Amino acid sequence: MGMKVSVLKLYNSLATRAVLGPVGQIPVGVTGLGAGAMRHVPRSLRSATPASHSVRSWGSGGRKLPTCAEHDLENYSMYCVSCRSPVCYQCLEEGKHNKHDVKALGAMWKQHKAQLSQALNGVSDKAKEAKEFLVQLKNLLQQIQENGLDYEACLVAQCDALVDALTRQKAKLLTKVTKEREHKLKVVWDQINHCTLKLRQSTGLMEYCLEVIKENDPSGFLQISDALIKRVQVSQEQWVKGALEPKVSAEFDLTLDSEPLLQSIHQLDFIQMKLPPVPLLQLEKCCTRNNSVTLAWRMPPLSHNPVEGYILELDDGDGGQFREVYVGKETLCTIDGLHFNSTYNARVKAFNSSGVGPYSKTVILQTSDVAWFTFDPSSAHRDIVLSNDNQTATCNSYDDRVVLGTAAFSKGVHYWELHVDRYDNHPDPAFGIARINVVKDMMLGKDDKAWAMYVDNNRSWFMHCNSHTNRTEGGVSKGATVGVLLDLNKHNLTFYINGQQQGPPAFENIEGVFMPALSLNRNVQVTLHTGLEVPQCVKQPKLPNN
């Protein structure tokens, strides 16, 4: 337990008689100790030995227990908590300790040792924490040194990049000045050459005319005078106004505005960029519609930390891990194509160049219990004709054409019905489910992307990959209702005609993403009814005729 705890053993090993100090804590051996040995006794223990206590030596017969100072024949057997000193039985019965709180000496000895050990353990833990803290501080010194060097290198690189950009811009500006100078010089040289040529021509004409004027023969002069007069006039007209003015000036119409750049350089300084705060979800704008959810959020008021964008996360609707569904600057987002009858948890966080901020509170959104959807005009065959807000379908062709629903299912139980509004000439409409990439110019179920029941006025068949199975008596006519039950919990598909199950479950072990599907020609018109509860009680199915 340390040196203080082993003091009692040290004194006992020196064969001394224990004398209890006034505080009643540790027996101190004093008899038989030389001056050198006495130096090993703590000063506080030596000074705590009262003069009133007797000092006795050990007998030759072995170690003796310390006796009471007031009752020589009694050994210490108890401890007075009030006086903090050991007492004997007679002290308790006769002396001043009879009304004090007295406990067994051995128990108090063990209790005090335990308290001291516990205190030492606490000090030891703190010392360990202090050592770890010193190591942390030393590591912090190293990190500060390394980060300082990194920031210096980054600053030098950024400033060098600015200098390089300024140097490149300087080269561009010098190129502009050089081009402008060369252009002006070329214009002036062209004007000099042109003017020199005209001057030479005019000078020659003048010299010739002067020689002609010297002619004394009137008849000879008049023969050429008209031509010379016209030529001189033409030459004079060539020196029009502005011909003797420079076409360019010596000044350069280029002014470099460097003041904004100088201001930016003077304002160049470090900024204290902090992480963005927690976004606040605007619950009054968060809503669900069918199998889509809309979430809205905003930053707290009086928030000055810059925000570069947001990250919206959504779980899988089944308590799974969150995944990112949107990253951008908008504060309103709608997520489509979720599962029906599912509970989704959503959260959002903001980010900037300093990093990503904390998450917002989680909002819980519940999608519709039942599926509401219509026929999808964007994916339907071009011969399909939709009306009644895309809930009624027919066709322009005598060939079968496919139209899909706007919903997609991958889990849960879903039920919808199709009412036969028109049925002429005994066609074979097909009802069922399909993948998004199903072939749309032939009957539903002829490829491997669709699972369907096609039916005429007397019987029905199940079809997938152009395989016809389970012929069942019972057909459709005008006014009939065909129900489709897709159970993705049990992974099967069941059909109903007028509320009665048509044959056994049509297809089993189906997995993936499916869309409601229908194929029909111009002799059929059907209306889609959705948002229906799954039938709880159904009539016994009609057995297929094999």
Automatic annotation (TrEMBL):
GO CC terms: cytoplasm
Entry-linked InterPro entries: B30.2/SPRY, B30.2/SPRY_sf, Bbox_C, ConA-like_dom_sf, COS_domain, E3_ligase_FN3/SPRY, FN3_dom, FN3_sf
Location of the B box-type domain: 63-105
Domain annotation Fibronectin type-III: ranges: 276-370
Ranges where the COS domain occurs: 213-271
Matching Gene3D superfamilies: 1.20.5.170, 2.60.120.920, Classic Zinc Finger, Immunoglobulins
Keywords: Coiled coil, Metal-binding, Repeat, Zinc, Zinc-finger
B30.2/SPRY domain: residues covered: 352-535
GO MF, one annotated term: zinc ion binding
The name this protein goes by in its record: Tripartite motif-containing protein 67
